[in-house]
Amino acid sequence: MKIDGGKPFDWGRTSADYAKFRDIYPREFYERIIRLGLCVRGQHVLDIGTGTGVLPRNLYPYGAKWTGTDLSENQIAQARALSAGMDIDYYVIPTEALDFPEGSFDVITACQCFWYFRHDEVMPRLARMLKSGGRLLLLYMAWLPFEDKIAGASEKLVLKYSPQWSGAGETVHPIRIPAVYNEQFTLVHHEEYLLNVPFTRETWHGRMRTCRGIGASLSKEEIARWEAEHRKLLEEIAPEAFTVLHYGAIAELKKKK
């Protein structure tokens, strides 16, 4: 998939906002992972594309030993700061360059990042680093612009400033898994479910600013113009506190050998 028509983006530019506004997964999102018996005590888990460490930090109380990797130094710096006092290892490494020893992990997680990878390179690395029967857990959450008025209006404004942004128009669907994973993995579970995620005008504005089509790709001047227009929009259409309809999706893959 060609993301945003090839328009460059850099998540490192959004790291401070990302740390503040992207830790939004509700309790049910995490409970569904735990009910699968994954990311719990006795397991060593690698979170690829960890960003600011949202997944390791929120699942840390369940006892797994976590390692997080990301290609952005800024994101990892935020992850380390936010994980102070937690025994979580973070490394600045692109997923395509991961080289932990064979059989290092019981579970590898990828939350909100799976489509960014070069899968022909990544899949064999993930399989090698997993133990026999280990799990690859793919996680995703997105707002639903056609069902939720506020989400739809905010998304339309993002497209005004970033017409090539390919993150728009989400509908509920299973996580798409490239065929190359069939060589070494079996899909053993998937589910898709609805979530009402709480926001205020300020936190929703921050969440939208951190989306790829705004904070990670626009100039400072463009972001400032978008911000003024988006704040005005929210004053017109949104109460001070509200929920936005999202859906969550899980795909659990088991290593074949």
Keywords:
257 residues; alpha/beta; globular
Task: Explain this structure.
The chain has 257 residues and is of the alpha/beta class. It contains eight helices and seven strands; from the N terminus they run H-H-E-H-E-H-E-E-H-E-H-E-H-H-E. The chain has a seven-stranded mixed β-sheet with strand order 3-2-1-4-5-7-6. Helix 1 packs antiparallel against helix 7, helix 6 runs antiparallel to helix 8 and helix 7 (201-209) packs antiparallel against helix 8. The chain is globular, with a radius of gyration of 18 Å. The two termini are 29 Å apart. Residues 46-137 form the Methyltransferase type domain. One of its GO terms (molecular function) is S-adenosylmethionine-dependent methyltransferase activity. This is Methyltransferase domain-containing protein.
Walk me through the topology.
Layout: H1 15-21, H2 27-35, E1 44-48, H3 54-59, E2 65-70, H4 73-82, E3 88-92, E4 105-111, H5 119-129, E5 130-143, H6 149-161, E6 185-200, H7 201-209, H8 220-237, E7 241-255
